[in-house]
């Protein structure tokens, strides 16, 4: 990718007054944002890592664009670069090649055009391709998108169990394609909103940890779907009778569904209820494993892996619930004052 000014530079803290420290901003960034002395900027703290994000209080609506030299990348690297630019929220990606794009690289563009929402070619020659990513962040509610992602994962998991029960042959490709499409769109919203705090209200969520936590939960859901794929590929399972397998699958589904629900609407009581449900399901697994003896089944470790992801999601929900309780207490204290 062709770059201009470096995105990273070292700055020294300077003393301003008796108790205030200040740091200068890069001139090229200030000029690009159209800022001048007296203008306000938003300083946003990363709750999990401690870093600071500085953005204009009234950012320009100019669309972000980037230019990529395709000659620098293999087809697989090229695919990853385009996907990354989509997730980072670019509105326009211009691909150039002095040697001319290969058939493999053109195929990558066509593949992503079919897979990614709002990703489309608007200009194409042998040496140049212009891609527009026309997804408007404000058109989506990130909570609803997370719920759609969870429902799609649940469908894949149910299909995998059906394969393990011998009720169907393979997983339907359309479900996995839909999961990937939603996940890429979900990441685009997360990263775009994190860089622009003024979009928080538009997507229906606070900035900082909630966005980071949602990204973590979305990743867990995709990894759960990956585990389901592995289960389906291993074929019909033995070692448990059909009713045992159905009971375990139902228990896992209830635990995961409850956990996703408390991520979206975190309250202390519901978070604890989800924690209890996961623990009870684990106990059910261990009792079943003891009953089946050494033959067992590959379903048990598969379900344990799913619950591992559910526990990580529950931990995010617990943090979100604590954060909301703290915010509520602070608001009430300010009201009393």
**Biggest sheet architecture:** 4 strands, mixed
Q: Unreliable runs, pLDDT <50, ≥5 residues?
A: none
* DSSP helix fraction: 55-70%
Tell me the fraction of residues in β-strands, as a range.
Answer: 5-15%
- Tell how many strands the DSSP assignment holds: 8
Average pLDDT number: 82
Task: Quickly count the domains.
Answer: 3
**Terminal-residue CA separation:** 54 Å
Estimated structural class:
alpha+beta
Describe what this molecule looks like in 3D.
With 337 residues, the chain is α+β, with helices and mostly antiparallel strands. The protein folds into 3 domains: 14-56; 65-133, Translation Initiation Factor IF3, CATH 3.30.110; 140-336, Phosphate transport system protein phou homolog 2, domain 2 (Methane Monooxygenase Hydroxylase, Chain G, domain 1), CATH 1.20.58. Helix content is 58%, strand content 11%. It contains 10 helices and 8 strands. The chain has helices at 27-33, 75-87, 103-115, 142-164, 173-195, 200-203, 209-233, 242-264, 268-292, 299-336; strands at 14-16, 20-22, 41-45, 52-56, 65-69, 92-96, 119-124, 128-133. It has a 4-stranded mixed sheet, with helices on one face. Strands 1-2 form a two-stranded antiparallel ribbon. Strands 3-4 form a two-stranded antiparallel sheet. Helix 7 runs antiparallel to helix 10. The longest helix has 38 residues, at 299-336. The chain is flat and about 70 Å long. It starts with 13 loop residues before the first strand and ends with a helix. The model has no long low-confidence stretch (mean pLDDT 82).
């Amino acid at each position: 990718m062709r770059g201009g000014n470096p995105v990273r530079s070292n700055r020294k803290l300077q003393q301003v007054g008796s108790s205030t420290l200040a740091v200068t901003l890069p001139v090229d960034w200030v000029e690009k944002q159209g800022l001048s002395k007296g203008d306000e900027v938003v300083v946003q703290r990363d709750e999990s890592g401690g870093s600071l994000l500085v953005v204009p209080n009234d950012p320009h609506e100019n669309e972000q664009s980037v230019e990529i030299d395709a000659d620098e990348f293999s087809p697989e690297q090229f695919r990853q670069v385009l996907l990354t630019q989509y997730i980072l929220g670019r509105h326009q990606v211009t691909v150039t090649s002095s040697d001319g794009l290969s058939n493999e690289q053109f195929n990558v563009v066509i593949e992503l055009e079919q897979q990614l929402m709002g990703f489309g070619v608007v200009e194409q020659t042998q040496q140049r391709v212009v891609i527009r990513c026309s997804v408007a962040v404000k058109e989506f509610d990130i909570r609803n998108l997370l719920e759609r992602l969870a429902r799609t994962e649940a469908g894949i998991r149910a299909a995998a169990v059906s394969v393990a029960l011998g009720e169907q042959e393979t997983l339907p490709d359309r479900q996995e394609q839909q999961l990937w499409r939603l996940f890429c769109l979900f990441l685009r919203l997360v990263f775009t909103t994190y860089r622009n705090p003024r979009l928080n209200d538009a997507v229906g969520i606070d900035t900082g940890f909630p966005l980071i936590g949602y990204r973590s939960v979305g990743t867990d859901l995709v990894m759960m779907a990956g585990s389901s794929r592995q289960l389906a590929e291993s074929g019909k399972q033995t070692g448990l009778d059909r009713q045992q397998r159905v009971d375990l699958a139902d228990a896992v589904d209830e635990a995961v569904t409850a956990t996703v629900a408390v991520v979206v609407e975190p309250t202390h009581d519901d978070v604890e209820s989800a924690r209890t449900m996961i623990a009870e399901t684990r106990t059910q697994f261990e009792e079943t494993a003891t009953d089946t003896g050494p033959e067992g089944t590959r379903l048990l470790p598969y379900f344990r892996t799913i619950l591992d992801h559910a526990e990580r999601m529950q931990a995010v929900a617990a943090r979100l619930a604590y954060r909301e309780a703290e915010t509520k207490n602070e608001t009430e204290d300010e009201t009393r004052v």
